Amino acid sequence: MALLTIFFCIILLVLLVSWAKVNPFLAFLIVSIAVGLLLGIPLGKVTASVQNGLGDTLKSITIIICLGAMLGKLVAESGAAQKIADVLVNAFGVKHIQWALLIVGFIIGIPLFYNTGFVLVVPLIFSVTYKYKLPAVYIGLPMLAALSVTHGFLPPHPSPSALVLIFHADMGKTLFYGLLVAIPAVILAGPVFAQTLKKIPSTPLETFIAKEIPADQLPGSGKSFLTALLPVILLMATTLYLNIDKSSGSTHKFIAFIGDAPIVMLISIMVGTYTLGLSQGKTMKQLGEIYGDAVKDISLILLIIAGSGAFKQVLTDSGVSTQISNALQTLNLQPLVLGWLIAAIIRISLGSATVAGLTAAGIVSSMVLRDHSINPNLMVLSIGAGSLAFSHVNDGGFWLFKEYFNLSIKDTIKSWSAMETIVSVVGLLGVLVLNQVV
Questions:
Q1: What is the DSSP code string of 344-357?
Q2: Contact 406, 203 (CB under 8 A)
Q3: NCBIfam families under this entry (predicted)?
């Protein structure tokens, strides 16, 4: 009954947005309240659940998305994105630009949270799209597939790192196995699958469309790459330091502070203000207008993501994930497949990869710790793969992709949702293969 209710409400959400043309944020609020009541949340607590979901979601990503949009707009307007695109195309050629973007996406994705990485790579994707008249989805999906895989499979991302601790796995081995699984998953879900998406119409957000700037007026290659990748550099450097220095002194605390994602983004925008702004002859007034326009352009996206957070919170508070998980535990399946399946169904039901991964881990952890024939490192990856399955309308990542690339829900499902599912299935297959040899 719970699954039927969720299915009905998801269909209602799709119809409200696509057929009735209701604003997605309003549609999320309507459906969130409806599903909460249908799943038995007391009348007086439904609104509180919605508000908690909105607040928790915005609390965690507002600073990152806003500052990331500012940095992205600056990278586009200053010509840095154009310069980076030129360097990549010269190195790989237009024919192989997808592979260049995939590699950059994978490198960026290892230290960065998905939302942060997304808003950083979008200007680069759009710059290549407009400069070389290439299909946006075809060019962008491989890069985003790389970001998604690193988010779900590889420490130090929150879910994989937490799963390592839950299963008493080895962080180094999990990362090594994760890389082995991630490479084929990214290739198949990225450049290979994207070959089928060339005809999907997409007109990306105009905020990242920069005017063509003469080559002699572009910022230098070093300055462009440094500013665009500064968040990555800071996060990688601070993470490396914190993993080496296990002390609790003032230096350790300071490095941990500047390595926090919002602080990293704030430092990056301050540096960018000089390197791509003031040093390029722009005034603070001009930069203020660039930053203001960037925030205006992503304000609706923030609300939509917040709405998806409200929907997820209502489903979580109703206890439906526990009901689904208990029912699945009665199935007689190989443990790695069972962990993947539980995570996948919770992911499809609730939308959050992190919630799906941690919930599934809580269910199978006693089995893994009790049965020493189950490789804990591979269970981390199996659940991580399951937590990425079929992202759709209850996932904030789905709406980020849809709104930034300005797609219909149908085309978003054909591209984004299908890509996530390929990553998930290939990830499981890779884990099962590794299970035979390690």
A1: HHHHHHH--HHHHH
A2: yes
A3: gntP
Tokens of 431: 């884990």
Q: Rounded to an integer, what distance in angstroms lies between the CA atom of residue 103 and that of residue 95?
A: 15
> Locate tokens 């926090």: which residue?
260
Every domain of the chain and the residues it spans = 2-435
Per-residue pLDDT at 6 exceeds 90: no
- Please tell me the distance from the alpha carbon of residue 400 to that of residue 308, in angstroms, as a whole number: 11
For residue range 76-127, list pLDDT tens digits in order: 788 887 788 788 778 888 889 899 889 888 887 876 668 777 877 887 788 7
Q: pTM value?
A: 0.75
**Structure token pair of residue 45:** 């607590």
Residue 33 has pLDDT above 90, yes or no: yes
Q: Compute the half-sphere exposure of residue 169: CA atoms within 13 Å on the CB side of its CA.
A: 30
pLDDT in tens, 390-437: 999 888 889 989 988 999 999 999 999 999 999 999 999 999 999 999
Residue 208 reports pLDDT greater than 70: no
Whole-angstrom distance, CA of residue 156 vs CA of residue 152: 10
Judged against a pLDDT cut of 80, whether residue 249 lies above it is answered with yes
Write out the two tokens for 352: 């959050």
Amino acid code (one letter) for 164: V
The phi and psi torsions of 68 (rounded to 5 degrees) equal -65, -40
**What is the C-alpha end-to-end distance of the chain, expressed in Å?**
41
**Helix (H), strand (E), coil (C) string for 290-306:** HHHHHHHHHHHHHHHHH
Distance CA 254, CA 257 (A): 5
Other Cβ atoms less than 10 A from the Cβ of 301: the count is: 21
pLDDT in tens, 337-347: 999 998 998 89
Given a cut of 60, whether residue 210 has pLDDT beyond it is no
Q: List alpha helices for 201-279, DSSP H.
A: 221-244, 250-258, 261-272
